[in-house]
Amino acid sequence: MPGEPGRVTDVTNSPSADVLAVTRLADRLRASVGSVIEGKPSAVDMALVALLAGGHLLIEDVPGVGKTMLARTLARSIDCSVRRIQFTADLLPSDITGVSVFNPQSREFEFKPGGVFATIVIGDEINRASPKTQSALLEAMEEGRVSVDGITHDLPTPFMVFATQNPIEMQGTYPLPEAQRDRFMASVSMGYPSREAEVAMLEHHGAANPLDSLSPVTDAAGILEARRQVARVYVHDALKEYIVRLVAATRTSDALRLGASPRASLQLLRATRARAAMNGRGYAIPEDASTLTGAVLGHRVLLSHRAHSARTSTAEVLARIVATVPAPQRT
Asked: What is the CATH number of domain 7-330?
């Protein structure tokens, strides 16, 4: 597709039927989740971006603001296998991956799958488990499989982890290792609802569980097909260079002591494609990447001691990077 160096050429053709199918699927999922999660459209959209891009989502915030409900609602909207793992201090790695048990009748060891064997895995309060147990998810999230007693077991496809965690300053929590955080495509913060949204929540959800009346709007096969179409979204070379510049800027910023990894560039590219398809485009634009930068990079970087002392937030640092790094011009 032609385009000048440093420019992104808009495609004026009508979106293909495949792209429109992804857009309609995203609209159905957005409506389904939005019927339960009041007043949080940006968090819902970010969850859909991660789902359609084939990534994992980390939901961080204080207790009671709907972290687990967001994960459960999106899982209920898809007709697939769902497992919820409640992370606690005494949870063992084998509870997640599975364990080999000796069968006295067959006189052989049999593999008993752990909680990670599902299409959607909800890891609730993941930072309440020990780092050793948290790390049990590493291979599963990166490669879609687990190894137990030297034998590799494939996980279902599609496979996605929704993990929730409370702020690490709260009692009984452990910070996720950097290697674990880097496996998540994006992180979102729910925040407190607006007064209107909270009143609507009392009105609609005060008498019954809203999940009881929720029906699936797609299935695992539908998500797999949508991911295939998302992977075909066109990204101009200039836009790929822009993504790399955004990520590279985190490694040279004085406000950060740990920048984003090359994996972050790849995840931002995938998320950019998903956002484009959700908006009915078969091509990505610079706004797709810049809008997602905070969610995709925020949990991967660490503030410098000076920035932390100045009470500068990660979001502020990344916003300055987005404002500083020149985006390719659209023609």
From this structure: 3.40.50.300
